[in-house]
Specification:
Bound molecules: pyridoxal-5'-phosphate
GO cellular component, one term: cytoplasm
Helix content: 40-55%
Catalytic activity: [(1->4)-alpha-D-glucosyl](n) + phosphate = [(1->4)-alpha-D-glucosyl](n-1) + alpha-D-glucose 1-phosphate
Structural class: alpha/beta
Number of strands: 25
Mean pLDDT: 93
Keywords: Carbohydrate metabolism, Glycogen metabolism, Glycosyltransferase, Phosphoprotein, Pyridoxal phosphate, Transferase
CATH topology of the largest domain: Rossmann fold
Radius of gyration: 28 Å
Protein name: Alpha-1,4 glucan phosphorylase
Pfam families: Phosphorylase
CATH superfamily of the largest domain: Glycogen Phosphorylase B
Length: about 850
Amino acid sequence: MSEPVPTASTLPAQPPADPAVVSDETPSTDARRIGPTFRTSHPLASGPVVQPAPTVDGFVETFLGELNYGQGVLLSQSTVNDQYLALARTVRRYLMADWLETGARRRQAQQKTVAYLSAEYLLGRQLGNNLLATNLQDVADAAMSRCGIDIASLRAQEVEPGLGNGGLGRLAACFVDSLATMDVPCIGYGIRYEYGIFRQTFEGDRQVEVPDSWLSLGSPWEFPHPERQVLVHFGGRTEEVTDENGRVVCRWVPDWNVVGMPYHYMVPGHRNGVVNTLRLWSAKATQAFDLQIFNSGDYAEAVRAQTFAENISKVLYPEDSTPQGKELRLQQQYFFVACSLHDFIDNTLPHDFDLRRLPERLVVQLNDTHPVIAIPELMRILVDRKGFDWDEAWDITKRCFAYTCHTLLPEALEVWSVELLGRLLPRHLEIIYRINEEFLEEVREAFPGDEMLVRRMSVIAEHPERSVRMAYLATVAGSKVNGVAELHSQLLRDKVLPDFSRMWPDKFTNVTNGITPRRFVLLANRRLSDLVTDTIGDGWVTDLDRLRELEPYADDASFRAAFREVKQGNKERLAALLRVRDGLEIPQDSMLDVMVKRLHEYKRQTLKLLHIVSLYDDVVSGRVAAEDLTPRTVVFGAKAAPGYHLAKEIIFLVNAVADTVNADPRVAGRLSVAFPANYNVTLAEKLIPAADLSEQISLAGKEASGTGNMKFALNGALTIGTDDGANVEIRRLVGDDHFFLFGMTEPEVERLRPGYTPSMYYEEDARLRSTIDLLASGHFTGGDRQAVAPVIDNLLHQDAFMALADFRSYLDAQERVEAAYADPDAWSRSAILNVARSGFFSSDRSMRDYLDRIWHA
Ligand SMILES: *Cc1c(COP(=O)(O)O)cnc(C)c1O
């Protein structure tokens, strides 16, 4: 490590928080009594034990020590899992001093802290990232080989924590990475699901979901902190009581409780000595449950009650952007939000902190509506527990929160029925009603006589059932509301929350999403990173705009050749992986055309499928000679929510088409389709660096931003895409000549919408008709026409996302792709310019924008 290791004398002598001072909501478990209650003058009491600077010898010694004394095995007897755990614990030692030092520094400095509240963190594997952050890769490689161990097999042993569905959860992971790299005080708060996103397998071409038991082989990156556990209430009723000052206050008399147990994860900055914390909550039964078990005649029933409490953090809901309104999900949301606010206010701030100054010390960023229940929770803490009057509490609360909206789909806007919310969180419902009453008064003052407007803007919807609109609550309370790409933020103002943006134009802002270049370039694409660093130095890793310095090299033939070699190497690496991982053979010397993202109708995997079938149809019908087809390998990756029937039918159809196309000698070597199961961050890191073509083909106005699109551009793939989400900004930055645009614009979509008749396109476009007919004939499903019907019928009679309307334009754009690909020099020039001009999409830049426009931290 280049950073000096902190010693006792360089560290502030801050005593640990006194564990005896606990709030009314903290359970008095035995764990509470284990706190550091002693005082000593020993110098090591206030500074970490110094970890010697890393050498290969030292690393080997620590590793073997972990193996012997941590795992309890000899090297000669150890399994790969033993070795992986010992290696992880070795790496974690090198981060620990920085973690302790960062924590101490944060406590001392009393700066504003970002509490990033997110129900999802799609972290990806930790070992590689942490080796990179500590710059220990080479030392670890050498140390493992000295032990006769292949480090690659240890890396492969790690099960990624899949605590998210897709883009939203991955964004949260990129953001905390950037904040650590920028040394911004941040605590990421979330849920430690025992089962993350399901593992996808295919049986008979159909998706089958397998539980993701990511913790089963041990989890070396987490640290449970029972002394920081928090009690969370549910259910019951409210009552009014008079307090000691004669004030009438409201009291919540809950029905049941659970304990939130925090697990801490290290979030290292990139080689800067900073390690921030991600704090994920796990639900446990309270001692009361244990007592109940002890005293109960019905032992089995009591144990069931315990299981009930622990169910809260059992599993991640696998719906991506279509919440189902399930009671357990609301329990999850309140659970982690209550734990997190309590943790910050009662266990992180100094005990004598004056909460009137809370907005100077805390900004809570709400990642979508999932944590919005934090707003009434903070009001409850301030008014009911801390004795603030309503107006002052509301003023504080409004200044603490900001809200990020992630969607444009109406069905994705979360609402909770009043019945359910009142049953689970009666006090919060009262608070929401009062917030709404006062807000609607404000609306009436601002726009007198417009009762329709009042009803439209109400946080409480009356139809189809009385329910709370969480996005509205977040907008009313938040100091800022942001969309996640320019187009999205504009549509948010104009279409999703127009009344609110009229009332508070300054509340609305944009922060275009980004991705961390550490994971998605440096770690995922070592070949490209080395080439870039050899050419312009390594400053780009933390200042991605410097990729601009590559621009002149786009015209340098030897650089282009080196760039092509990088791509080819990545393709070979991918081919080797898919061979062992999935038993798939992907041909070399072909264009790698990749569409990886959650399966959703609006993302239009069916449009890609129609393209494949049309290429295949061209050859088998004799219209095009196979030799005239640009050799192309299409790779899909996509999970469907288990209850999303049409999405699962689409997966089936992609697999069926892949089977047929890959087995047909008429297109052999010219067209192939690979659909490796279980697309996740680990696979993304291998797939994206190998891609030539990035498919970003959502219907305009539906994809809020996309981040996959950014990962591809930064790894030198060219995009074929619609004018949607951040594609708009990618195209503007890389230039029209280096981006394949197609499809309707958002206004064109809206104009077409009213009378949209998909069958008309089928009737009028012979190529589309032939494509759909071939699909519908059962050619890809062993003659079974029934098996194709759900997808075909939907396309012809509904096609809510207008794949047929954009089909012709998409095919034309694909022809432009083929023409461009035929000139390798021009193609790699464009690819290099994509890399050079995409520095804007670093999540470091997103974080700077949040800091400037929203957090002011
Ligand atoms: C980046 C990423 C996503 C988001 O992809 P989009 O194309 O933006 O939808 C989803 N899943 C994984 C595993 C990712 O890494």
